[in-house]
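To whoever is on call:

I kicked off a structure prediction for a single chain this morning and the downstream step that reads the tokens threw a length-mismatch warning. I double-checked the sequence; it's 179 residues and nothing unusual in it as far as I can see. Pasting both halves so you can look.
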Amino acid sequence: MSEQTSSSKALFDTPQGTIWYLLYCKAKEESRAVMHLANQGVNAFYPKVNITKVLRGKRQRVEEALFPNYVFAQLDHAKHNFTSVRSTRGVIGFVKQGKDYQKVPESLINLFQDCDTLEKLDASIPAKGDKVVLNNPQYNNIPAIYQEPKGENRAILLIQLLNKPVEMVVDNSEFVKSV
């Protein structure tokens, strides 16, 4: 009889202490969710990455979430209310694994916190020697080779004219990386 009592007691045991959980958030609202969770006394964060991309023809560095729409939150079962965390502005809910909330190992959290912010280049930005295709009206669909950026708005490309390689400077919006 005591075995049955101990097994039924184990079914109703709740985790003790602080545990990291994975939350799913609204698009582009990770920082809002972290701010509102902090107001509730919840330790939360999301890893970020600095991406260099071309926006409106200009090279810009943008900070984005490494895992878009996801936030890590450290909850204390004795202190925090899971319903209020789920109802926090910017948060959609907990990520689940079966019927249980997805727990995240502390070692993984420490790894992300140690990395702080990662550096990354957008895959659509060409590197020296990459093949690109011009898409401006004068040189429609002519293949070229990317040489280097020239300021924030332009780049130097190498094209073949009369069987001779020629350097030309074009706006970043006038070419795309070929696949």
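Update from on-call: the warning came from a stale cache, not from the record. Cleared it. Sanity check on the structure: DSSP finds four helices and 15 strands in the chain.
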